[in-house]
Amino acid sequence: MIRHLELPIMPVESRPNWYNLVINGKVPKERVFSAQEILDMPEIIIKGDFFCNDGWMVKDLTWSGIPISQLLKLAEVNCKEVDSIKVCSDGYFKTFDIVEVLQGNIIIATKLNGDFLSFGHGGPCRLIGGSRSGDNHVKWVKSIEVS
Fold first, then answer.
1. 3 found inside a domain
2. Of the four, 59, 60, 98, 111, which is 20 to 30 A from 47 by CA?
3. pLDDT at 2 over 60
């Protein structure tokens, strides 16, 4: 495997305030989270290497964000009646089995190595899909569809 020297970090000076994340589908009522709501939630930290399908990797990244399982709980989703979720961004999406989601290591990341995500890194919110490869880490997440 090729080791990329580093993933360029482009810090953002302020918290994004224009963003909304929609949770819809098999939910009691569509839920919209503002950037402020997401950034005010207790975050978890996931540390690890980032693997790309092209064969490169970046070691020792620290992602901070909100577990999707927590967002589903806040949206009052009955996870016993759910098979999967689809994380979407303008026509691009990845699907995750609900069992995988409930493990808690699939997050909507807001920070990389302590800095808010820049647009180039998928900010203000991007998916970090557990131990899956890079194409599963959806940038610019706009919605989570529950099915």
1. no
2. 98
3. no
